Structures are given as C-alpha cells and as structure tokens.
Amino acid sequence: MSLKIEKKNAETLALEGRLDTLTAPELEAEISAMFPTVQTLTLDMEKLDYISSAGLRVILKTQKALEKKAGLKLTHVSNEVKEVFDITGFSDFLTIE
Amino acid sequence: MSKQEQNDSYKSQQKVSFFNFLAELPNFIAVTVSAIISGSLIVWMDFVDSLGNVLNSGFVALLSRKLRRDLKYEYNYGVGKIEAISSLACNGILICGLIFMLVSSVNDLISPKEPSGLLIYVVVLKVINVAFDTVFLRAQYKIKKEAKTAIATTEFHASLKSFLFDSVALISLLICWIFRDIHAVWYFSPIICIALSIWFFVGAIQRSRESVQMLTDRTLPEAEQMKIMSVLSCFHDRYEKFEFLSTRMSGNTAYIDLKLNFDKNTTYGEINALCAEITAKMKEQIEDCRVSIVIDGDK
C-alpha cells in the first residue's frame, strides 16, 4: 500500500495510506519543496492508517525545522497513529488537533 | 582502555604473532616433509593445522601493526570488516584442507595402511612443537589478560587450539608408533583424524558464519528503530535541528548514526553532555549498540 499526498492549500498536506520506509522519502521531498515559503505546515492525517519509525523521522525533522516559524500541526490523527506518537513520546511536543 | 594502552597491546600482539610466525615457519616445512615421508594422516592433519597457523599469525602480525596507527579517518566504522574478510579467507582455506582430510581418513578406514617406521622422527618434532606452543600460549594469555581486544581473545583461543591439537597429535603418534605391529592400531590414525576434522570443521563454520554476519549489514528491527525515535523525542528541546538518522545491524551490534544541529549559543560543554546522555539512553534501550553523533560545526 502506498502513500497519497494531496496538497489541500499552500500550507496543508493531506496524507492517505501508510507512512513507512518506502513512502517517507516522498513526504520528505514534498515538505522540503514547501520549506522556503511556508511559515506553518498542517498535516491532515485523517486517512493515514500507519506510521513507522521512518515516518516519525520525517515528522521530527519537519517539526524541528519549523520550530522557529509558526510550527507544525497535525490534524485528525487516528487512534492507531496517535498511539505511536504516545508510545514514542512525540505527543509531548507535537501540536495534535 | 586508553588509546596508549590499546596501542601497547597491539604492539605486544604484533611481537608475539611475528615470533609465532617465525617459529611456525620451520615447523610448517618440517611437517610438510614429514607428511610426505610418513604418509600418516595425523601428520597431514598437522600440515593443515600448521598452514592455518602460518597464515593466521602472519596476518595478525600485519594487522596489529596497521591497527597501531590512528585509523579513525581511514575506517570510520572500525576495522571489524577487515578482520571479518581475513577470517573468512583463512577459514575457507582451513575448510578446504579439512574436507581433504575427511575424504582421506574415510579412504584409510576402508583400506588401512601400516604406520611408517619413520614416525619416531615426527614424534621428536612434535615434542619440540608442543614446547613452543606452551611458550606462546603463556605469552598470549598474558596479553589477553592485560588487553581485552578482539584480536587478543581470538589469538588466545587459536594458541589454545594449537596447544591442544599438538598434544593430542603427539599422544596419537606415540601410540601409533609403539603399537605399530598391531593391526587394529592402523585404524587409530584415521579415526583420530575424523574426530579432529569434525571438531575443527565446526569451529571453522562457526567463525565463517560470524564473519558473514559481520560483513552483511541488516536493517534494524522496527521495534528497535521506534526505541531510537523515542530517545530522540526525550531530548527534542535540547537540539535545534534533526538532520538525519541512519541505522544498521552488523553481527549482533546495532550502529546508530545521527546528525544534529545546535543553536550558535549552545556551548561545547552542553553539546558534549547531551551527546553523552543520548548515547547512554540509547545503550539503555539497545544493549549492544554503537552511537555516532555528528554535529554540524558551521551552525
């Protein structure tokens, strides 16, 4: 299963499918392309079924890069993905709505 | 162990291995001649063992010399892979020799040969050989006790194996020579050879397996990778940027490389303390791991 990245607007990406070793580089490339102009980034995770450690790396990298700007926001996070954030301690510093 | 102590241990190792190599050379020539003359399988077995010792001691002497230099910039991940390739090559030669010995032993069991009368000269040679083995075993034990390097441990086991093998060979040759007129004793040499070949074979296969494991990097299991991410999240407020994370399994050791950037106001002491804390926490989560943290100097 792959990852579908939909650009909802200049600062929002909607993710669908699995964010794992195979698909994490796609998301990283998409986010990197947005970096020069973006002040805040929202990742809509409503349809994201699974996140692996490779996905967490991209999230951490993005969060740290946007820390001094308006930051990274995760929305509509499913219970399965939220559990991964909780176990790894990512929930403590990520903005999850 | 400090760098100086490690250097000293490699120096001692180089010296012992070089003398071992020099001492093994005449023995190797003598054993080769003895094996051709006597035709005894135990002596041919000794030839295979001696060939392994010559190659091994020569290589370890060279490697110890190289390891005394600071190789940090030449081999970022240490010299484990060099040792593994060499070990694989040495064990490959040993395995080929052992297969030859096994086939010959089975052949001699089917049609046994009378032990040669010249065997007594080989026995004398073996006594000198065991005396040399005892000296090297003592020297190697001393090195192993003082420096707990991988080479020192491997070499101690090699010396112990050599001593045990030569002692067993000496006793077997003596029995073969004393009771050479008894027909049943003709089977003694091939039986001892088969037993020793299997013992050596198991060891060689085990060492080859370890070397292959060392040479083939595997992906770290997802559960372990999650643990790493969990450690990084613990310290997220103490670094400015997370650049990359690279992980791999080599043998049973997990290698974790990561690059972090810091705010220009962060002091060297703070960065150093954080790196030590991250490393300690990683080791707490993944017992056998090596952590390399790269800090971008320009930031």
Structural overview:
The complex is a heterodimer of chains A (97) and B (299). Chain A is α/β, with parallel strands linked by helices and 97 residues long. Chain A has a single domain (3-96), classed as Transcription Regulator spoIIAA. Chain A is built from three helices and five strands, in the order ββαβαβαβ. Chain A has helices at residues 24-34, 53-66, 79-88, and strands at 3-9, 12-19, 40-51, 71-75, 95-96. Chain A has a five-stranded mixed β-sheet. In chain A, helix 1 (24-34) runs parallel beside helix 2. The N and C termini of chain A lie far apart (26 Å). Chain B is 70% helix and 9% strand. Chain B has helices at residues 3-38, 41-67, 80-110, 119-146, 150-178, 188-215, 222-234, 268-285, and strands at residues 241-250, 253-261, 289-295. In chain B, a hairpin with a 2-residue loop joins strand 1 and strand 2. Chain A binds chain B through residues 52-54, 56-57, 60-61, 63-65, 67, 84, 87-90, 92-93, and chain B through 222, 225-226, 228-230, 232-234, 236-237, 239-245.
Short key terms for the protein model shown above:
heterodimer, A: 97 residues, alpha/beta, Transcription Regulator spoIIAA, B: 299 residues, 3-stranded mixed sheet
The CATH architecture assignment of chain A turns out to be 2-Layer Sandwich
What general outline of chain A do the C-alpha atoms trace?
globular
Helices and strands of chain B, in N-to-C order?
HHHHHHHEEHE
Strand content of chain A: 35-45%
The rounded Rg of chain B comes to 25 Å
State the helical fraction of chain A: 25-40%
Q: What summary fits the major beta sheet of chain A?
A: 5 strands, mixed
Most extensive interface between two protein chains, with residue counts: A-B, 18 and 18 residues
The unreliable regions of chain A are none
Structural class of chain B: mainly alpha
Mean pLDDT of chain B: 80
Strand numbers in spatial order across the main sheet of chain A: 1-2-3-4-5
